[in-house]
Amino acid sequence: MIALLVAGGVSMFFSLFLTPVFANAFRRMNLGQFVRADTPTTHVVKRGTPSMGGVVFIIAAVIGYFVGKLLSQEAPSVSALLVIFMMVGLGGVGFIDDYMKVSRQNSLGLSGPGKIIGTIIVSIAFSLIALLYTDENGVSPASTAISFARDLSFLDLTAIFGAGVGIVLVIIWISFLTTAVSNAVNLTDGLDGLAAGSSIFAIGSYVIIGFWQQNQWCQNPALDPDVAYKCYDMSSPLELAVIAAAIVGALIGFLWWNTSPAQIMMGDTGSFGLGGALAALAILSRTELLLVFIGGLFVVVTSQVIIQRIYFKATKGRRIWKASPLHHHFEMQGWAEVTIVVRFWLIAGLFVASGVFLFYIEWLTHTP
Fold first, then answer.
1. Residue extents of the structural domains in the chain
2. 3-state SS, residue 29
3. Which of 226, 213, 354, 352 is nearest to 284 (CA)?
4. Which of 266, 300, 250, 249 is nearest to 192 (CA)?
5. What does the alpha-carbon distance between residue 269 and residue 359 come to, in Å, rounded to a whole number?
6. Binding site for Mg(2+): residue ranges?
7. Any transmembrane segments, and where (predicted)?
8. What would the pLDDT profile of 57-105 be if each residue is shown by its tens digit?
9. Annotated binding site: which residue ranges?
10. Alpha-carbon span 84 to 313, nearest angstrom
11. Do 258 and 196 touch, CB atoms closer than 8 A?
């Protein structure tokens, strides 16, 4: 508990007080936001706003986590380090894209395939470590089964297809999930504070989930024997809550400067890093399919983009919505930016509440 509180507090204060320092440094280096011609005209005022702000809260989260572990005199766990690895790795992919854009002052950053290849490389490394490493209890951080609120035994890919093919399919599944989530968060990052605030809700749910899983952990000596059959067989659940708290704290501090009018943008560095962290938390907490609810806002935004694109190509130029992603459609409708962001935050919060509710209902109704 000490590590959780310290991690969240330290990361929040780091990003709260050092974000403007980074913003000024980025401004001096001319690392300003590039605004595309096809975005709403209200975004012209954002031109030149320091970008790549994701660097700030990624560093803050990492420092917060390690300070929390240091003060609690506990060793870092592989599970938490894997979340950090995914966040930093995908943040690095986004950083390359951001740097190419701001240095060239156009939208020609990494190509779409380039981003996907970078994401897959990080995902494969993450998968191999998470599947092959086992903790002191003989449990690996990741599972070979697809999960909802815990592993679904009938979707254990190694049991269905054998060890060799099954492991390959698990790696493909993790890579697909990571690519989908990171791109979904990236698509949602279009208005000041939108992605940061929505991610606070989504990642914050894993503080609750990790803490509950720790209480009902199969290795917890204080576990109530009457409900032992409902226990969670996984690696270091509390550690996932600690790193989630560190990320949330860092985002809260960053959001102070990222709300409209934003003094710094998170850029692809931040959105890809957050997507990677969210995917890693879902994989390691065995809540992969539950992420459809926890990240419901990201699913809605991404689905709208896909439907719009398919319809546009099928009808040779016609559109269902005025713009995509969805938040730009409402801008075209005349909604104020702050109104859109706050309402989307409310929707994100409702999705997260439904996801946590389903997680708890699964525990209540779980049978041997």
1. 2-365
2. coil
3. 213
4. 266
5. 30
6. 186, 268
7. 47-66, 78-96, 116-133, 154-174, 194-212, 238-257, 289-312, 340-361
8. 999 999 999 999 999 999 999 999 999 999 999 999 999 998 888 777 6
9. 186, 268
10. 39
11. yes
